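Good morning,

Both structures are done.
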Amino acid sequence: MKKLVLTLQLLFSIASFGQGFLHRDGQNIVDGNGKNVLLRGLGVGGWMVQEGYMLQTQPFASPQYQIRQKIQEVAGEQGTKEFYAAYKANGITKRDVDSLAAWGFNSIRLPMHYNLYTPSIQEEKNGEITWIEEGFTMTDNLLKWCAENKIYLILDLHAAPGGQGNDAAISDYDTTKPSLWESEANQKKMIALWKKLASRYRDNPWMGAYDIINEPNWNFTGTNKNGCDENSNGPLRDLMVQVTKAIREVDTNHLIFIEGNCWGNNYNGIFPLWDENMALSFHKYWNYNTTASIQQMLDYRKKYNVPIWMGESGENSNVWFKDALTLVEGNNIGWAFWPMKKIENIAGVTSVTKIPEYDVLLKYWKDGGQKPTEAFAKKALMKMADNYKMGNVTVKPDVIDAMFRQVQTDDTKPYKKNTIPGKIIAVYYDLGTNEKAYSDKDFINYRVATGNFDQWNKGNVMRNDGVDILPCKDSGSNGYQVSFIEDGEWLQFTTEVKTQNSYKVAIRYSSEKAEGKLHFETESGKKSEIIILPSTGGNDNWKTVVLSGVDLNSGTNKIKVVFDKGGFNLNYFDFTADKKASSKK
């Protein structure tokens, strides 16, 4: 009987973990069966390491220690503890991981703050290294949820002891204390932490890899404070070698990712590589999605016979996402996008709703004035922490569609079900890319030559396409309107038409001064007349005009609304059967 139990356990183990450990096979990342694995991941930024821009506390509080100070100032020590406990409990749960798996992700990159695992060197006595269970428990739980969804977990040391970069918000670097590079004690603590993590997770195949230091950006010998002109990077290489050695003393199973200086991309002096089971990570933001933009990493892959991975990217428009992922996947490069949850965010897979009370806190932190009461602050912060639950965030289907479906096809699909006769909300145009689902003149952001950061969506609400959207207070709206319409732009709507007919369309719009014009087109080439939209005398002064004679076939119709002359705001279209036109047939 005992032998049967052992046999069953062995079979269960093989069935559960038959994929084995991710590892390097030449220039590829493969599983235990030698099968190529294209990592499609998301970095769950903000959970263990808060960054000011995610919480809208930048620039007055960018690193996490400053954010915590601001919170403690208004909520008190106990209120701060309760907020952070709720924030971490709600930030990532099993439901989050289940959702990521359902959307198509096969990996998660966990940005870790060292202080959840071990105290700062200032808190240690006599140079000892002690441990905190909280971070390990959070990681254990996340790994369990990943395994249940057959998702790989990649550990990313995002905030190393002391902080690893002059871009302080990323690693919670406190400039009044020794950085990672200025303190041997901090480096020893980092090495010990990785050894502890590797010892704990060495036998778990759903632990995908160890990303041992995130975005170092430090000038060792150069003049650029973020290490972009470093030619040797000696201290960075030495530390990564020491970390690798410590990991390999307890764990020979897991893949190790390394990152260069200058936010992960400056590999000068890092080669030759020192481990057989290693891959290079690079980060890609705001540059062109051409082969030239990743050519250096492609060259490294070939020259050093090593896999490469786009370990972080995002914070752009859906068009940029689709183009970036098409580029890297076409070159057999896996990826991890960024981030998971951010307050009032259109460029991520989810958005956290901001409450008015939180704006009161932000205004006080920024400008001073009358201090909110402790009770008010605590209530506002606990409500914000509650809004981080997966059940309370707003999921962004357009972003998810761009990252997965649009990489495979240029076909469009409905954002919502649009039925005719019926009302079609203007912001419910199709899912798809520019010139396929819509046409907009500003649809992507490049920060290449000038460094300027121009929005690809002037309204910066609801959707992450080029189409410019603003909140709408007009009756009958869904709360949003299409605005900043320019001549020649258009929107496409996939509709289900119940009956072949000629329809009249009530167009709900507003405009301050300009006289607009639009017409409708169908796939079959039918065009309506052009209708003039006279000025309504104000952007908040909404009126309706009716266009007759829009002929539609029964079944699925892809309808384009073409803006012959822009300068107006659009709420909705209401299609009804044109009885006069029908009676003439």
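Second structure follows.
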Amino acid sequence: MIPKIRRGSRTHGLLAYLYGPGKRDEHTDPHLVGSWDGFAPDPGRDADADPKITMTRLVAALDLRVKQAGTAAPAQHVWHCSVRTDPGDRTLTDAEWNTVARRLVHAVNLAPEDDPDGCRWVAVRHAEDHIHILATMVRGDLRRPRMNYDFKKAQAECRRIEKEMGLRQLKPGDGTAAANPTSAERFKAERTGRTETPRDSLREAVRQAVAGAADEAEFFGRLREAGLRVKLRHAPSGDVLGYNVALPGDRNRDREPVWFAGSTLAPDLSLPRIRRRLTDSPTDTAPPRPGTSRTDRSGPARTRRDAAGIAERVTAVLDEDGGEAAAQLVGAGELLDALAQTSPAATRAELRDAARAFERATRSHVRAENADIRALRSAARGIVHAGTALGRGEDGGATAMVLSTLVLLTLAAARWHSARGHAQQAAASRQAAEHLRAAYRQAAATPLRAMRERAQALPEPERRRHEATIRAALGEPATRTGHQAGTAERFDALAATLAEAEKAGHDPKALLEEAVDRRELESARNTDAVLIWRIRRLADLPALPNGTGKPKAGTTPTKHAPGRPATRTATPAPARPVADPRRPAPRR
């Protein structure tokens, strides 16, 4: 149940709209469901009188005390609150809507119970799913009602009504959410064939432009590269005070662009807030750290592997309840926006939905202390500059690697917000985690299948040995007959990863124990998958098992003596290739 409160000065104008046909003939059977005394004239149901005369009588009754107060009455004396149920809720009766209206005017102190001097009000219903409450803000003693924080009080009362009436219970907000599109914006989007309102499109475009940007010039440049109209607001000194953006082709009735200031798109997209974020400028070329991925990998794969390690460290910050957690959530939002821009086609829609959902989790009233988010912003910048990743090969595997880590990060964010009573932010974090899980299943399908196939080729004693190592690390009992169908197959991909790490010179038992001890695993739905990607990153193994894809160009296997491993040596291409009829055609 969502209340929306506005104030105005024209009682007759608002009533004429409520009892009229609506902007698109959507008003059906307008009538009163409640009033201050239960006897107010109803222009919609009074069949024995002219509706216009009844409307005049109703306006006069509502404005009586306003006229008596004279200049002491507030200029904006009309309090207007629309209350709407969720689309999945049952249809409330007129009596139930009357109860809702009376509880709300009492909650905001317009008409307290058993107060004969309460303000006059009416509740009009012209649709099944909502009502409009109109009240004039002058009491019977001609004083103004005390209505501090009326929106918060109405929200709190709606949460109680939802619970008592068995309606869908919404999450209480804290005033940090972005503004929703207006009805006019939604109707315009429908008329013009847009799938979303310009406000929503612009909010996402601005978020993606700031993801990993080094300075204001790059931020504004990205906005223009995205095809947006950009207008800067300057002080007399020439300094930039703010910015406005508009979608090409989105114009008002005067054929002028419809501009949105950054602060109207979201509280954290104002220029001062963006400037504070840009102070943690990412570095373009940071030297490789020990243990980071090799430089011979593709740019998208390399940056995703590095981002996975950074995201894992941020997850630890959230679990440790540090003072900088709030800022790290902002950086995590930038990382998701960067991935959404450059993700493979198969995962792009889910990642966009994850970034949009997590945007709500990046804002709260908690301020960060001594926060440094340069690592996250550098990861986002690297991903944007590396370009779009492919959905196959090393790029696809690296995408699965970072998504597996981000699922745990968003769940840690949900726990952090829940501990502070941030219901909307916690719900948004869990929603983002579900979208990330869906994207992960798309990205990980091919690499995990290749690992399972690799495990099937391992000698049976080696498979059993790795399985025993896995069960011991996870605290699971060993099977009596070793490798059994339905029990050990879940370990195939993990066993193949341990075998590959052992072949690369690592101790599989020590590596697995380090992966288990790195972070919590309780929130993971698939513990084995989390451990696979941790081990492959810790051991710097390819995201896709060696030999799965095509050999690199310019390399060919050399003949080797029996008992000696084959090696790859670079084979320079001849200046003029000559076909040899005695040799078979090369395999392609």
